[in-house]
């Protein structure tokens, strides 16, 4: 069985890398970009290259599913790069292939707001995938850069699933029916993604949880069981959205970037942006065992637990990180 978390945005350090190893986490998709330009993204990649060099006993740069095996066999964690915004490609479709060659494996088509490619979930109107978005989807399919619609609006997500010739992802969200957060996904959205072979990662971020910080492990695992029964267990994994050791000021940057001089307060809150406390059963990379036990307790069999905890993501990586075969 693999343990794979398909979204974290931590304040990275040797202690977190070591904690990943101690928690038996074989691979993590890490956000390296929210609003950065191409050149700024390359600088972030350079920072990671230094970490790979300095902490080569703990982490490796993941580019293929085989790297997950290499990490597991050597007691390390494979780090896969992702962007929560298409800002790194700017308005240049050629940068899709270049960024994939540099190691990127996931890119969201929008982050809360309207982008050049798609509409974010905070916008009042959702006209769907743009003309450039349709071309970028084709190019992402061709090179093996996975489409992520975690922060995108409903119509845009459904259209992306229909337009893409390869499965797409919602790497970190939960069903809207369980908890009606703005970022959680409605039935028709999850169905569109899973009907086309896509994957969804269950989020542990408190704003996405029923009862938020007070959400119980049992409630979370029942939600996962219901989703697996409805759409098929093969379409789900974990995308914790764990933001470990981050200062509250980072939330403001995530939401605001450089697009406004004001404050984006987020999902109905009048308070300044900040990180809510994690539930007491999931606060770090040491706690994935709690989820495994919780899934078993609500009725998942051993194969189902393994599928959700990482085997499904491993299969998805193996099938979608490479170039599309020519007809």
- Domain count: the total is 1
Span between termini: 34 Å
CATH class: Alpha Beta
Task: Provide the CATH architecture.
Answer: Alpha-Beta Barrel
CATH topology label: TIM Barrel
Major β-sheet profile: 6 strands, parallel
CA radius of gyration: 18 Å
Q: Outline, from the CA principal axes?
A: globular
Task: Bin the helical content.
Answer: 25-40%
Strand content: 5-15%
Structural class: alpha/beta
The helix-strand sequence is EHEHEHEHEHEHEHEHEHHH
The overall average pLDDT, rounded, is 95
> With helices defined by DSSP (H or I, 4 residues minimum), what is the helix count?
11
Looking at CATH, the homologous superfamily is Metal-dependent hydrolases
Uncertain residue ranges: none
Say how many strands there are. Answer: 9
């Amino acid at each position: 069985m693999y343990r794979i978390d398909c979204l974290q945005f931590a304040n990275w350090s040797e202690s977190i890398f070591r904690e990943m190893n101690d928690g038996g986490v074989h691979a993590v998709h890490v956000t390296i970009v929210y609003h950065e330009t191409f050149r700024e993204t390359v600088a972030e990649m350079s920072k990671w290259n230094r970490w790979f060099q300095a902490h080569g006993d703990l982490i490796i740069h993941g580019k293929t599913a085989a790297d997950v095996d290499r990490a597991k066999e050597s007691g390390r964690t494979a780090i896969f790069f992702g962007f929560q915004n298409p800002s790194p490609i700017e308005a240049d479709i050629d940068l899709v292939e270049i960024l994939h060659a540099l190691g990127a494996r996931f890119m969201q088509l929008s982050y809360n707001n309207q982008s050049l490619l798609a509409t974010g979930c905070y916008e009042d109107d959702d006209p769907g995938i743009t003309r450039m978005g349709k071309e970028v989807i084709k190019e992402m399919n061709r090179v093996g850069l996975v489409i992520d619609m975690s922060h995108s609006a409903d119509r845009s997500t459904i259209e992306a699933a229909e337009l893409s010739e390869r499965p797409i992802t919602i790497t970190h969200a939960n069903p809207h029916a369980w908890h009606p957060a703005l970022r959680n996904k409605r039935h028709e959205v999850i169905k569109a993604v899973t009907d086309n072979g896509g994957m969804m990662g269950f989020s542990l971020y408190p704003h996405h949880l029923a009862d938020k910080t007070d959400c119980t492990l049992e409630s979370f695992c029942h939600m996962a069981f219901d989703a697996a029964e409805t759409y098929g267990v093969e379409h789900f994994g974990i995308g914790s959205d764990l933001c470990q050791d981050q200062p509250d000021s980072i939330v403001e940057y995530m939401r605001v970037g450089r697009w406004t001089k004001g404050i984006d307060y987020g999902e109905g809150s009048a308070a300044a942006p900040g990180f809510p406390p994690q539930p007491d059963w999931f606060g770090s990379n040491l706690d994935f065992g709690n989820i495994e036990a919780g899934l078993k307790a609500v009725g998942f069999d051993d194969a189902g637990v393994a599928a959700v905890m990482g085997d499904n993501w491993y299969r998805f990586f193996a099938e979608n990180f490479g170039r599309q075969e020519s007809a």
